[in-house]
Design a protein that fits this description.
- By secondary structure, the protein is of the alpha/beta class.
- 22% of the residues lie in helices and 34% in strands.
- It has a single domain, classed as HesB-like domain (Hypothetical Protein Aq_1857, Chain: A, Sandwich).
- It has three helices and seven strands, in the order H-E-H-E-E-E-E-H-E-E.
- The strands form two sheets. A four-stranded mixed β-sheet has the order 3-2-5-4. It has a three-stranded mixed β-sheet with strand order 1-6-7.
- A hairpin with a 2-residue loop joins strand 4 and strand 5.
- The two termini are 15 Å apart.
Length: 136
């Protein structure tokens, strides 16, 4: 998954002011569900990266063979227009441009013989590429 330089998938964003967080969490209904397992892993990775209290940013970015990719990284704080989703103490932020394309999606952490990592189950995806890293 493409990430801006200087960010790692195992990092997160700091707490937002209560008013901004409450406003964002109200709008977040139905945009992105975070599973209990994903929340647990977000907290584990944040602790490992010494970024406890940060948020995991989920962003849809242009790129890949099919047009879009998911970006995941930790940030210290959410932006003013971000949605903030909280699950079991873990916080996830989503930028306004990604809302529509993530509507009804689920963020999960999967572990299998082929590997492990965060996965977005997105009902809005119309197609993907052969490598499985991008979608349209």
């Amino acid at each position: 998954m493409g990430m801006p330089s200087g960010h790692h998938i195992d990092s997160s964003c700091a707490s937002v002011g209560n008013a901004a967080a409450e406003k964002s969490e109200t709008k977040a209904e139905g945009v992105l569900e975070v599973t209990s397992n994903a929340a647990k892993k977000i907290l584990e990775f944040a602790k490992k990266e010494d970024k406890e209290g940060w948020l995991l940013r989920v962003k849809i970015m242009p790129g890949g063979c099919s047009g879009f990719t998911y970006g995941l990284w930790f940030e210290k704080k959410a932006e003013a227009n971000d949605l903030v989703i909280e699950k079991n103490g873990a916080k996830v932020c989503v930028d306004q441009e990604s809302w529509a394309m993530l509507q009804g999606s689920v963020l999960e952490y999967l572990e299998s013989l082929q590997g492990s990592g965060f996965a977005v189950q997105n009902p809005n995806v119309h197609g993907g590429c052969g490598c499985g890293k991008s979608f349209s």
